[in-house]
Design brief:
about 50% helix; about 0% strand; mainly alpha; extended
Length: about 50
């Protein structure tokens, strides 16, 4: 699968937590990729509207 880059901004407290994960061997990219994959594997919620 071809990967594409995505640039995001996060608040300082979240960046600090991501840095803590890095010290444990988990990259920010890997962690965010895992969260996105888990989110999109969930069943769609009916009646929910985005803004």
């Amino acid at each position: 699968m071809k990967m594409v880059r995505l640039l995001i901004q996060v608040p300082e407290p979240i960046k600090s937590k991501l840095d803590g994960l890095r010290e444990q061997g988990t990259t920010a990219s890997g962690f965010i990729r895992h969260l996105l994959e888990a989110h999109f594997k969930q069943a769609p919620v009916m009646g929910r509207k985005g803004r």
